[in-house]
Design brief:
Blueprint: E1 2-3, E2 28-35, E3 38-39, E4 43-46, H1 57-61, E5 64-66, E6 69-73, E7 77-81, H2 83-96, H3 104-117, E8 129-138, E9 151-160, E10 171-175, H4 193-208, E11 213-215, E12 232-237, E13 240-243, H5 254-265, E14 270-272, H6 277-285, E15 289-296, E16 300-309, E17 312-315, H7 323-336, E18 347-351
Parallel strand pairs: 1-4, 10-11, 10-16, 13-14
Antiparallel strand pairs: 2-3, 2-4, 2-9, 5-8, 6-7, 6-8, 7-18, 8-9, 12-13, 12-15, 15-16, 16-17
The chain binds pyridoxal-5'-phosphate.
The site of pyridoxal-5'-phosphate has 15 residues, from helix 5 and strand 15.
């Protein structure tokens, strides 16, 4: 690996007590190419602009994918949460977008080296983290539609503040109405920018109506719950944890996977199956809907306080966080910050 260090750190320009999500970037980045049928020598270079041709095919046809994971400061080490699982998903996304996969060893080695070099950028406070954003884009320059022969893999990192400054605030969701996020056989299970492009207009309209995010229903019957924009979704009904099964339209979240593993371990009944919005409304009416929450790397657990579907509005757990939601949050963040034992081998630990 080649490492070119920045001449001076920009760390002093950043107010670490007032960090928003993904607005400041650490001093270095990973950047290397795929060509001649292989990934070339990895490089870490100073963070900065890159120069590309306006004919670069990913600008025109969107052949690109990304990942998102986090590193946490524990006092004497930095913990990266489930890099192997993120690598596995990285390669699955690559496969769907015809992008060459990357060996696990290389993926983890470059991330570890970047986080180690920029370890001063991992914020110190509870609830804060260094967000790690690996991504790949096709770099061949042409306007014909075909699979690119060359790619660039990059990793940038961004210090992020506590997602919840005043406790876990429940979000308000509205169902997708006329829009769908992904169709069967489409890109829904790949972490690729196109899915986000599709979600922008519906998300704007939801915000305009006073809701935090869109609750996506399936594209065929407009009935089965899929996920929430940047999060997977779970319901607790009559003591059972229910989350939509991964049917090809839903992004396989690492946090979702962690919640399922914990719930099973705690002896909670878990069902991964199709769940309709009508079932959730019915459970709300008969009093068996206990909790609803989103899962994702950014917020870990995001309690859902309200769901609007056409003329129907349901309030979940009086708009407050539920006991199980809080327990998942405490357990996962406890493992991330090294306060609880890493019982599942989820942590890649870098000693300082
Ligand atoms: C990344 C993402 C999630 C959450 O996945 P995590 O691995 O838990 O962060 C959920 N839905 C979509 C569409 C995503 O892109």
């Amino acid at each position: 690996m080649r490492i070119e260090k920045a001449l001076e750190s920009k760390r002093h320009e950043v107010d670490f007590d007032n960090l928003n999500f993904g607005e400041k970037f650490s001093d270095h980045m990973v950047s290397f190419e795929y060509r001649d049928d292989k990934w070339q020598t990895p490089e870490i270079i100073p963070f900065g602009n890159i120069s590309v041709s306006p004919a670069m095919c990913s600008f025109h046809y969107g052949q690109m994918i990304f990942e998102g994971l986090k590193a946490f400061f524990t006092g004497d080490r930095i913990n990266i949460f489930r890099p192997e699982k993120h690598h596995e998903r990285h390669n699955r996304s690559c496969k769907r977008l015809c992008i060459p996969p990357m060996e696990k060893e290389l993926f983890i080695r470059v991330i570890k080296a970047l986080v180690t070099l920029d370890s001063e950028w991992v914020p110190r406070g509870k609830g804060t983290a260094l967000y790690i954003r690996p991504f790949v884009f096709a770099t061949e320059n042409f306007l014909g539609v075909k699979v690119s022969d060359t790619y660039r893999f990059m990793v940038i990192t961004s210090p992020v503040g506590a997602y919840y400054k005043e406790g876990l605030n429940p979000v308000r969701l509205i169902t997708s109405g006329a829009y769908t996020r992904a169709a069967k056989g489409g890109l829904g299970e790949a972490k690729t920018p196109a899915n986000y492009a599709a979600s922008l207009l519906p998300a704007e309209e939801a915000k305009h109506k006073g809701y935090t995010q869109v609750l996506w229903l399936d594209g065929i019957q407009d009935k089965f719950i899929e996920e929430v924009g940047t999060m997977n979704i779970c319901f607790v009904i009559d003591g059972t944890l229910i989350t939509p099964s991964l049917d090809g339209t839903i992004l396989p979240g690492v946090t979702r996977d962690s919640v399922i593993i914990l719930a099973k371990d705690w002896g909670i009944r878990v069902e991964e199956r199709p769940i309709s919005i009508d079932e959730v409304i019915a459970a709300s009416k008969d009093g068996t809907l206990q909790e609803a929450f989103g899962t994702g790397t950014a917020a870990v657990i995001s309690p859902v306080g309200e769901i609007r579907h056409h003329e129907e509005t349901i309030i979940v757990n009086d708009g407050k966080i539920g006991g199980l939601s809080q327990r998942f949050y405490d357990e996962i963040t406890g493992i991330q910050y090294g306060e609880l034992e890493d019982r599942y081998g989820w942590i890649l630990s870098i000693p300082l």
